[in-house]
Each structure stands twice: as structure tokens, then as C-alpha cells.
Design a protein that fits this description.
The chain has helices at 3-18, 25-36, 64-71, 90-104, 108-138, 142-149, 162-181, 187-202, 225-232, 238-246, 249-255, 261-274, 276-281, and strands spanning 46-50, 77-80, 85-89, 221-222, 259-260. It is mostly helical. It has a 3-stranded mixed beta sheet. The protein is globular.
Length: 282
């Protein structure tokens, strides 16, 4: 997703923030307009909001024959690549919001703020998937290469699939940028999205030795999430290690590339130190 798209969405979102209004259909219609007037116009058709009864949509009705198919959608949202539609399961999202609010302890004043940011992060996640389809066809960088090389399904791959990793991290980072730009002064909410990023970044790294634990030995190599994808896809790992040598530790973690045990533990330590102020308050 480009900065132009994000800034246009921010402009619309700020209206709801400053007026303390819950995101409504008009917001999603405006976001759809932004996408259709961008480089992603050939990769997006509709943004569809499923309601509790699965019989009404924000923009148009769905024929009865399709109801069962839509009811089987898994997760908070999905980007339907074939039909170029983004589906948001609003009833499931609302349930998740209620659970998270209880965990982070949002008060009544911050309720709408958190709700809107949560919904926006889910939407941005799916927009990142739209952008990934553009990169698969037009990208010419390391990220697009890695996306192409992992653009297939293997058993039990979802937890470490690069598409999901990048979509979750990038969408959450956009929320943090938005929090800073709008000067939203709420450490609980900020910490929620910080943790969301951190959990996704370290997800999927594995190391096994005789003792069965991570060590601080420089030579000990952790298997990165993307590496497991290459192994299961019976692809050469040589290119993965060549790419790793060109990137910083932070970039390697972002893409789930191989790391030494020392570098992995160092990343965790540095990440937490930078955010100690937030973590100590919540």
C-alpha cells in the first residue's frame, strides 16, 4: 500500500475520530473509492460487510445460492482473489473487539477509538493482500520475489505464510503511525498494536538442539518461517541465505528469514527496550 493511499484513508478516518463516530458504510464506500482511483484499481471490486444473519450486505444483496459459501468464511475478513472482493465479517470482528477490550481494559471514553482502530487494522490487512497481488504481477524487489516464491499452499502453512505475516505487521504499523499523527494519547491502545506486531514478528522461528532450547551461540541458526515454506515446497534454500546477507536484522525478521540465535535474541531484547515505557504502564 502506498503512502498516498494511506494518507487518503487517514484523512477520512480523522473525521470519525474527531467527531467520535463509529465507522459506518459511508467510510467503507469512501475507502473503496480511494482504492479504485489508485494503482490497485484492477485488483479490487467491492468491500462487502457481512452482517450477523448473513443475509444483508453494505452495497448489494447476495443471491440465496451464495449464502452458504459466504457463511463458511474463516477469520475476521478475507480478500477473495478471484472476484477481487474484500469481505469483513462484522459480527466476528465485534466479538473479537469485545474480548480484546476486556483484556486491555479500555474505558468508555476510549471504546469508540479502539473499535475504529481495530476495524481499520482488519481492513488495512486485507488491503495489503490486494497490494500483494499487484506486487506479484508488477513488483521488482526482494519482497515481490519472496511473495512469488511462497505464493502457494502447503499443509499447516497459514501460521508462517509470508502474505499473512506482512499483512498483519504492516497494517498494525500503519495504525501506530495513525495514532501518532492524530496524537491519540492512550497507552493501552498503542500497546495492543505494538504487541500485535511483536507477536507476529517472532512467530514461526524455531531452533532445536540436543538441549531443545535457544542458545546465545553465534553459530546456532534458527529456522525462519519462510525457510520452512521453502523446505515443504522442495525449493533450494541457497537463495534465501543470499538474500539474508543483504538485509538488516530487522528486515530479516520482517520477512521471516533465517537468523542466528544471538541475533534473534538480540532483536527481541532491543525491541522490548525501545518499548519499555509502554509495557510498564499497562
Amino acid at each position: 500500500m502506498t503512502n498516498e493511499i494511506f494518507n487518503n484513508i487517514l484523512r477520512i478516518f480523522s473525521f470519525y475520530y474527531y467527531n467520535n463516530i463509529v465507522l459506518d458504510n459511508e467510510f467503507f464506500i469512501n475507502v473503496l473509492g480511494i482504492l479504485k482511483n489508485s494503482h490497485l484499481k484492477d485488483y479490487i471490486n467491492r468491500i462487502i460487510i457481512l452482517d450477523v444473519n448473513l443475509d444483508r450486505f453494505s452495497f448489494e444483496n447476495v443471491i440465496n445460492d451464495d449464502t452458504k459459501k459466504y457463511s463458511e468464511l474463516v477469520g475476521l475478513a478475507i480478500y477473495d482473489v478471484k472476484n477481487k472482493d474484500i469481505f469483513l465479517r462484522y459480527n466476528v470482528i465485534n466479538r473479537s473487539i469485545r474480548e480484546e477490550k476486556y483484556i486491555i481494559g479500555c474505558n468508555r471514553k476510549s471504546d469508540i477509538i479502539f473499535r475504529n482502530l481495530y476495524v481499520l487494522q482488519v481492513l488495512l490487512h486485507e488491503i495489503e493482500h490486494v497490494n500483494q497481488m499487484y506486487l506479484l504481477e508488477h513488483g521488482n524487489n526482494i519482497e515481490s520475489y519472496l511473495l512469488r516464491e511462497t505464493d502457494y499452499y502447503v499443509n499447516n502453512s497459514y501460521s508462517y505464510r509470508l502474505k499473512e505475516r506482512l499483512a498483519e505487521v504492516k497494517s498494525s504499523k500503519y495504525i501506530l503511525i495513525l495514532i501518532d499523527m492524530l496524537k491519540i494519547d492512550n497507552d493501552c491502545i498503542r500497546a495492543f498494536f505494538e504487541r500485535n506486531i511483536f507477536k507476529r514478528l517472532i512467530k514461526g522461528y524455531e531452533y532445536q538442539n540436543i538441549e531443545g532450547k535457544i542458545t546465545n551461540n553465534e553459530e546456532d541458526i534458527l529456522i525462519g518461517p519462510i525457510e520452512k515454506y521453502f523446505i515443504e515446497g522442495d525449493k533450494s534454500l541457497e537463495k534465501i541465505f543470499e538474500i539474508s546477507e543483504l538485509l538488516s536484522i530487522e528486515e530479516r525478521v520482517l520477512y521471516g528469514l533465517p537468523l542466528t540465535s544471538k541475533n534473534f535474541l538480540g532483536f527481541i531484547s532491543n525491541y522490548r527496550k525501545e518499548r519499555d515505557k509502554i509495557y510498564q504502564k499497562v
